[in-house]
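Example pasted here:
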Amino acid sequence: MAKTPGLVDAGKQQGLNTLDKTTVIVPTFNRAALLAETLDSILAQTLAPAEIIVADDGSTDDTPARMAAYAGKVQYIRKENSGKADTLNRLIPHIKSPLVWIVDDDDIVLPHALEKLTGLLRDNPQAGFAYGPYNRFIVDAQTGARKEFSAGHWRNVDPEDFLVTTLQDFFAHHPGLLVRKECYDRVGPFSMNYSRSEDYEMLVRLARANSSVSTRDILFLQRQHDDPRVGGLVGEDARHKRWQKEERDLLTQVREDNRPIDFLPRRFGAESILTPQLEREALIVRAAILARKKLWAFAAEDFASACAPGRPATPLNAREIAAIRQSVFSKYGFPELLQGDDAQTLFLSVRNMKAVGAQIARTYARALLWFVWRDVQSGRLADAARIAAFALQLAIPSPGTRLARRGAM
């Protein structure tokens, strides 16, 4: 691929060295109306990239015509439609720049984003990738006014906890993620098994193999809109259902890989043999994450294994408690509190798993009090009472009792 001389020269004027050069890839499909704003934001970076490649995945709109305005500034590649993962897999092996920045075709990167991420990697040579947070925005269809708001579920974490936190939820997205090309080479191509979560699956592999570094500076604006997505998905509910299914598939695969170190702080990654205490922690953290993803049967198996005879019966540590509490605060909500027999059965079964199980149940009970408070504040007093009764049942077990179903009230 030929580089764009003007952009390389601009980078040299800002003191770029060889290790600072970045190739930006913008995969696109039928986003002609939004793509120009994305490209303009990339071209406005305070640190110019070495090259910008727009990879058109067989658009049927007027993307080719609109790209004519960017001739000489952006490389435009058009191919048959085969999906985002395949598009990236075809491009990345041929990139010569040491850094790769993938930017979604409907988002806006802020002017300092590339300079900030590049500086993080320059100052932290042990890190394989750098990342940072974002805000969301909507555009008023009538006035064209843009309204920004917080992403809401961002997690500020220590690098050693990045993988575990990412397994809980995907929060570091491509436009806020700068990756060393050698890291992509090492972990292999994007998976073709995920039509919506190929970036999540790739980030898990990157985090398994590499340390990270982050900033708290907002790096990009994520556009919220209801245009059709992969698979013709329209509307938030359809997208959430697809994401949940693919996240369950991903975590099922992670569990099958049976790497306990994935669920421990990174500093334990070099341990060839884990202590009994660390084995228990890995099982509890994994069970809590599987419950968060609503994989109830797998979560029950891991909790049972963590509480089995011969496992340490010491009090839960801070990481175990935090993982258990987090498991009920899914970004997709937790309707199973009142509707899901599988969830209730899991919690009630854990309660009876001797000393450690009782601790787990009490930790869940305390976490559920937030839902009681939420429903009281919203005037849903019947729901608040039902959740409170279930929390009490977990904290002070009484044989033969069970949370009544919504329809029985």
